[in-house]
Specification:
This protein has ten helices and twelve strands. The relative contact order is 0.13.
Length: 312
Protein backbone atom coordinates (compact mmCIF):
# COMPACT_ATOMS: atom_id res chain seq x y z
CA UNK A 1 0.00 0.00 0.00
CA UNK A 2 1.60 3.24 -1.17
CA UNK A 3 1.48 6.28 1.12
CA UNK A 4 -0.69 9.22 0.10
CA UNK A 5 1.20 12.23 -1.21
CA UNK A 6 0.07 15.39 0.62
CA UNK A 7 0.00 18.56 -1.48
CA UNK A 8 -0.56 21.66 0.65
CA UNK A 9 -1.87 24.27 -1.72
CA UNK A 10 -3.37 24.90 -5.12
CA UNK A 11 -1.18 27.60 -6.66
CA UNK A 12 1.82 27.11 -8.95
CA UNK A 13 1.67 23.32 -8.81
CA UNK A 14 4.00 21.30 -10.99
CA UNK A 15 2.55 19.45 -13.95
CA UNK A 16 3.16 16.20 -12.06
CA UNK A 17 0.83 17.32 -9.25
CA UNK A 18 -2.01 18.40 -11.53
CA UNK A 19 -4.55 16.47 -13.57
CA UNK A 20 -6.12 14.14 -11.01
CA UNK A 21 -9.65 12.87 -10.67
CA UNK A 22 -10.64 14.18 -7.27
CA UNK A 23 -13.24 13.68 -4.56
CA UNK A 24 -14.11 16.86 -2.67
CA UNK A 25 -15.30 17.17 0.93
CA UNK A 26 -14.19 17.40 4.54
CA UNK A 27 -13.67 13.62 4.90
CA UNK A 28 -13.48 13.79 8.70
CA UNK A 29 -13.99 10.16 9.61
CA UNK A 30 -13.96 8.94 5.98
CA UNK A 31 -17.29 7.22 6.70
CA UNK A 32 -19.34 5.11 4.27
CA UNK A 33 -20.85 8.20 2.61
CA UNK A 34 -17.39 9.67 2.05
CA UNK A 35 -16.22 6.33 0.69
CA UNK A 36 -18.95 6.42 -1.96
CA UNK A 37 -17.76 9.84 -3.17
CA UNK A 38 -14.18 8.59 -3.31
CA UNK A 39 -15.38 5.50 -5.16
CA UNK A 40 -16.90 7.67 -7.90
CA UNK A 41 -13.64 9.59 -8.24
CA UNK A 42 -11.74 6.29 -8.37
CA UNK A 43 -14.00 5.05 -11.19
CA UNK A 44 -13.32 8.23 -13.15
CA UNK A 45 -9.59 7.99 -12.46
CA UNK A 46 -9.51 4.48 -13.93
CA UNK A 47 -11.38 5.53 -17.07
CA UNK A 48 -9.21 8.60 -17.58
CA UNK A 49 -5.92 6.98 -16.62
CA UNK A 50 -5.53 9.77 -14.07
CA UNK A 51 -4.27 9.77 -10.47
CA UNK A 52 -6.89 9.52 -7.72
CA UNK A 53 -6.97 12.52 -5.41
CA UNK A 54 -8.98 13.89 -2.53
CA UNK A 55 -9.55 17.58 -1.80
CA UNK A 56 -9.94 18.72 1.80
CA UNK A 57 -9.29 21.87 3.81
CA UNK A 58 -7.02 22.85 6.68
CA UNK A 59 -8.16 24.14 9.05
CA UNK A 60 -11.63 22.65 8.85
CA UNK A 61 -14.08 25.46 7.91
CA UNK A 62 -16.00 24.80 11.14
CA UNK A 63 -12.95 25.88 13.11
CA UNK A 64 -12.85 29.16 11.20
CA UNK A 65 -16.54 30.03 11.35
CA UNK A 66 -17.21 28.60 14.84
CA UNK A 67 -13.89 28.84 16.69
CA UNK A 68 -15.35 28.42 20.17
CA UNK A 69 -17.13 25.13 19.64
CA UNK A 70 -16.03 21.93 21.41
CA UNK A 71 -13.51 19.59 19.79
CA UNK A 72 -15.19 17.60 17.01
CA UNK A 73 -12.59 15.73 14.95
CA UNK A 74 -13.07 12.00 14.33
CA UNK A 75 -9.49 11.23 13.31
CA UNK A 76 -5.97 12.60 13.22
CA UNK A 77 -4.30 13.45 9.92
CA UNK A 78 -2.20 10.27 10.14
CA UNK A 79 -5.33 8.16 10.62
CA UNK A 80 -7.00 9.89 7.70
CA UNK A 81 -4.02 9.27 5.43
CA UNK A 82 -3.94 5.56 6.30
CA UNK A 83 -7.64 5.13 5.52
CA UNK A 84 -7.31 7.08 2.27
CA UNK A 85 -4.35 4.91 1.26
CA UNK A 86 -6.45 1.79 1.87
CA UNK A 87 -9.02 3.23 -0.56
CA UNK A 88 -6.36 3.69 -3.23
CA UNK A 89 -6.05 7.46 -2.94
CA UNK A 90 -2.73 8.72 -4.28
CA UNK A 91 -2.92 12.45 -3.44
CA UNK A 92 -4.47 14.54 -0.70
CA UNK A 93 -4.84 18.16 -1.78
CA UNK A 94 -4.92 19.86 1.61
CA UNK A 95 -6.07 23.35 0.73
CA UNK A 96 -5.50 26.20 3.20
CA UNK A 97 -8.84 27.56 4.36
CA UNK A 98 -7.68 31.15 4.72
CA UNK A 99 -9.27 34.53 4.03
CA UNK A 100 -8.66 34.20 0.31
CA UNK A 101 -10.26 30.76 0.13
CA UNK A 102 -13.21 31.79 2.28
CA UNK A 103 -13.83 34.78 0.02
CA UNK A 104 -13.96 32.89 -3.29
CA UNK A 105 -17.38 32.64 -4.93
CA UNK A 106 -18.45 29.22 -6.12
CA UNK A 107 -17.54 30.15 -9.70
CA UNK A 108 -14.15 31.49 -8.62
CA UNK A 109 -13.47 28.32 -6.65
CA UNK A 110 -14.32 26.10 -9.62
CA UNK A 111 -12.32 28.25 -12.03
CA UNK A 112 -9.28 29.29 -10.03
CA UNK A 113 -8.83 26.34 -7.68
CA UNK A 114 -10.22 23.27 -9.45
CA UNK A 115 -9.53 24.17 -13.08
CA UNK A 116 -6.56 26.53 -13.14
CA UNK A 117 -4.87 25.48 -9.89
CA UNK A 118 -5.34 21.72 -9.67
CA UNK A 119 -6.11 21.04 -13.31
CA UNK A 120 -8.77 18.60 -12.13
CA UNK A 121 -9.97 16.23 -14.83
CA UNK A 122 -12.94 15.01 -12.83
CA UNK A 123 -14.61 16.12 -9.59
CA UNK A 124 -16.81 13.86 -7.44
CA UNK A 125 -18.98 15.40 -4.72
CA UNK A 126 -21.68 14.27 -2.35
CA UNK A 127 -25.35 15.03 -2.96
CA UNK A 128 -25.31 17.68 -0.19
CA UNK A 129 -21.95 19.25 -0.99
CA UNK A 130 -21.73 23.05 -0.92
CA UNK A 131 -18.79 25.28 -1.80
CA UNK A 132 -17.83 28.89 -2.32
CA UNK A 133 -18.52 32.02 -0.27
CA UNK A 134 -21.86 31.73 1.48
CA UNK A 135 -21.97 28.03 0.49
CA UNK A 136 -23.80 29.01 -2.70
CA UNK A 137 -22.23 26.25 -4.81
CA UNK A 138 -24.10 22.95 -5.16
CA UNK A 139 -23.73 19.69 -7.09
CA UNK A 140 -25.87 21.23 -9.84
CA UNK A 141 -23.65 24.30 -10.20
CA UNK A 142 -20.58 22.04 -10.09
CA UNK A 143 -21.97 20.12 -13.09
CA UNK A 144 -22.47 23.45 -14.87
CA UNK A 145 -18.91 24.59 -14.16
CA UNK A 146 -17.56 21.22 -15.22
CA UNK A 147 -19.25 21.55 -18.60
CA UNK A 148 -17.93 25.09 -19.04
CA UNK A 149 -14.38 24.38 -17.87
CA UNK A 150 -13.88 20.89 -19.25
CA UNK A 151 -13.84 18.56 -16.25
CA UNK A 152 -16.22 15.72 -15.53
CA UNK A 153 -18.50 15.74 -12.50
CA UNK A 154 -20.19 12.90 -10.64
CA UNK A 155 -22.51 13.18 -7.65
CA UNK A 156 -22.86 10.49 -4.99
CA UNK A 157 -26.31 9.89 -3.60
CA UNK A 158 -27.03 9.51 0.09
CA UNK A 159 -25.76 6.39 1.83
CA UNK A 160 -27.69 5.29 4.89
CA UNK A 161 -29.41 2.58 6.84
CA UNK A 162 -32.63 0.71 6.08
CA UNK A 163 -34.68 3.39 7.86
CA UNK A 164 -33.41 6.08 5.51
CA UNK A 165 -31.08 7.71 8.04
CA UNK A 166 -28.14 9.02 6.01
CA UNK A 167 -24.63 8.35 7.24
CA UNK A 168 -22.79 11.48 8.33
CA UNK A 169 -19.93 12.69 10.48
CA UNK A 170 -22.54 14.37 12.67
CA UNK A 171 -24.18 10.98 13.21
CA UNK A 172 -20.86 9.50 14.28
CA UNK A 173 -20.28 12.31 16.77
CA UNK A 174 -23.76 11.94 18.23
CA UNK A 175 -23.32 8.18 18.62
CA UNK A 176 -20.01 8.65 20.42
CA UNK A 177 -21.32 11.37 22.72
CA UNK A 178 -24.21 9.06 23.65
CA UNK A 179 -21.98 6.06 24.37
CA UNK A 180 -22.92 4.04 21.28
CA UNK A 181 -19.58 3.05 19.70
CA UNK A 182 -21.20 0.19 17.74
CA UNK A 183 -23.40 2.71 15.92
CA UNK A 184 -20.38 4.92 15.21
CA UNK A 185 -18.59 1.88 13.75
CA UNK A 186 -21.60 1.05 11.57
CA UNK A 187 -21.47 4.51 9.97
CA UNK A 188 -17.69 4.60 9.66
CA UNK A 189 -17.30 1.06 8.40
CA UNK A 190 -14.72 0.43 11.13
CA UNK A 191 -14.44 1.18 14.86
CA UNK A 192 -13.81 4.74 16.03
CA UNK A 193 -10.23 4.90 17.30
CA UNK A 194 -8.24 7.30 19.46
CA UNK A 195 -4.57 7.64 18.54
CA UNK A 196 -1.90 9.46 20.48
CA UNK A 197 1.33 9.29 22.48
CA UNK A 198 1.35 7.46 25.80
CA UNK A 199 1.90 9.92 28.62
CA UNK A 200 3.17 9.31 32.12
CA UNK A 201 0.40 9.49 34.73
CA UNK A 202 0.23 8.94 38.49
CA UNK A 203 1.01 5.21 37.98
CA UNK A 204 -1.73 4.40 40.50
CA UNK A 205 -3.12 1.66 38.28
CA UNK A 206 0.26 -0.08 38.21
CA UNK A 207 0.38 -0.07 42.01
CA UNK A 208 -3.16 -1.51 42.15
CA UNK A 209 -2.49 -4.27 39.62
CA UNK A 210 -3.88 -2.83 36.41
CA UNK A 211 -1.24 -0.68 34.65
CA UNK A 212 -2.80 1.77 32.19
CA UNK A 213 -1.53 3.64 29.16
CA UNK A 214 -2.71 7.25 29.28
CA UNK A 215 -3.47 9.04 26.00
CA UNK A 216 -4.71 12.66 25.68
CA UNK A 217 -7.89 13.23 23.67
CA UNK A 218 -6.41 16.18 21.79
CA UNK A 219 -8.82 17.50 19.15
CA UNK A 220 -11.04 14.42 19.07
CA UNK A 221 -14.75 14.66 19.72
CA UNK A 222 -15.15 13.64 23.38
CA UNK A 223 -17.02 10.32 23.66
CA UNK A 224 -19.35 9.69 26.58
CA UNK A 225 -17.33 9.48 29.77
CA UNK A 226 -17.19 5.91 30.92
CA UNK A 227 -15.65 2.47 30.54
CA UNK A 228 -15.20 0.69 27.20
CA UNK A 229 -14.06 -2.68 25.91
CA UNK A 230 -11.21 -1.89 23.54
CA UNK A 231 -8.62 -3.14 21.08
CA UNK A 232 -5.26 -1.34 20.86
CA UNK A 233 -2.58 -1.41 18.17
CA UNK A 234 1.03 -0.90 19.21
CA UNK A 235 3.70 0.60 16.93
CA UNK A 236 5.19 -2.88 16.36
CA UNK A 237 1.89 -4.16 14.96
CA UNK A 238 0.66 -6.10 17.98
CA UNK A 239 -3.06 -5.83 18.76
CA UNK A 240 -4.17 -6.19 22.36
CA UNK A 241 -7.60 -6.43 23.95
CA UNK A 242 -8.24 -4.20 26.92
CA UNK A 243 -10.59 -2.11 28.99
CA UNK A 244 -10.41 1.69 29.05
CA UNK A 245 -11.82 4.63 30.92
CA UNK A 246 -12.51 7.88 29.13
CA UNK A 247 -13.01 10.75 31.53
CA UNK A 248 -11.50 12.85 34.27
CA UNK A 249 -10.90 10.19 36.95
CA UNK A 250 -13.00 11.80 39.72
CA UNK A 251 -12.19 9.20 42.39
CA UNK A 252 -8.47 9.97 42.67
CA UNK A 253 -8.46 13.64 41.66
CA UNK A 254 -9.74 15.07 38.42
CA UNK A 255 -7.44 15.39 35.41
CA UNK A 256 -7.93 16.65 31.87
CA UNK A 257 -10.23 14.30 29.97
CA UNK A 258 -8.20 11.42 28.59
CA UNK A 259 -8.15 7.76 27.62
CA UNK A 260 -6.68 5.35 30.18
CA UNK A 261 -6.45 1.83 28.76
CA UNK A 262 -5.47 -1.36 30.57
CA UNK A 263 -3.98 -3.73 27.99
CA UNK A 264 -4.62 -7.32 29.04
CA UNK A 265 -1.50 -9.44 29.53
CA UNK A 266 0.83 -6.53 28.79
CA UNK A 267 3.27 -4.76 31.12
CA UNK A 268 5.94 -3.09 29.02
CA UNK A 269 7.05 0.53 29.17
CA UNK A 270 5.69 2.38 26.14
CA UNK A 271 5.85 6.01 27.29
CA UNK A 272 6.11 8.33 24.29
CA UNK A 273 5.01 5.67 21.81
CA UNK A 274 1.94 6.32 19.68
CA UNK A 275 -0.86 3.78 20.11
CA UNK A 276 -4.30 3.54 18.52
CA UNK A 277 -7.28 2.27 20.55
CA UNK A 278 -10.61 1.15 19.06
CA UNK A 279 -13.70 1.79 21.20
CA UNK A 280 -15.78 -1.37 20.73
CA UNK A 281 -18.39 -1.59 23.50
CA UNK A 282 -19.61 0.85 26.17
CA UNK A 283 -19.74 -0.87 29.57
CA UNK A 284 -20.84 1.81 32.04
CA UNK A 285 -20.63 5.57 32.77
CA UNK A 286 -17.67 7.00 34.67
CA UNK A 287 -18.33 6.88 38.42
CA UNK A 288 -16.91 8.50 41.53
CA UNK A 289 -16.22 5.86 44.20
CA UNK A 290 -16.02 6.41 47.94
CA UNK A 291 -12.78 4.43 48.25
CA UNK A 292 -9.89 3.22 46.08
CA UNK A 293 -10.85 -0.35 47.07
CA UNK A 294 -14.36 0.03 45.64
CA UNK A 295 -12.92 1.47 42.45
CA UNK A 296 -10.47 -1.42 42.08
CA UNK A 297 -13.19 -4.02 42.57
CA UNK A 298 -15.34 -2.38 39.90
CA UNK A 299 -12.44 -2.15 37.46
CA UNK A 300 -11.80 -5.87 37.87
CA UNK A 301 -15.49 -6.54 37.11
CA UNK A 302 -15.23 -4.23 34.09
CA UNK A 303 -12.20 -6.18 32.86
CA UNK A 304 -14.07 -9.47 33.22
CA UNK A 305 -16.99 -8.09 31.19
CA UNK A 306 -14.65 -6.71 28.54
CA UNK A 307 -12.90 -10.05 28.20
CA UNK A 308 -16.27 -11.75 27.80
CA UNK A 309 -17.38 -9.35 25.07
CA UNK A 310 -14.05 -9.54 23.27
CA UNK A 311 -13.74 -13.32 23.60
CA UNK A 312 -10.34 -13.26 25.30
Amino acid sequence: MKPVRVITGWKDLSAADRGAAVAMGSFDGVHKGHQKVIGLAAEAARKLGAPLGVISFDPHPRQVFNPGQPAFHLMTRDQQLRVLAELGVERLYLLPFDQEMAGLTDREFATRVLHEGLGARHVAVGFDNSFGKGRTGSPETMRQYGEELGFGVSVAGAVGDADGEKYSSTGVREALREGRPEEAARILGRPFAIEGPVQRGRQLGRKLGYPTANVPLGHYVVPKFGVYATRTRLPDGRELAGVANIGVNPTVGEVDARLEVWLFGFDEEIYGQVIETDLLHFLRPELKFDTIGEMTEQILRDAEEARRLLGV
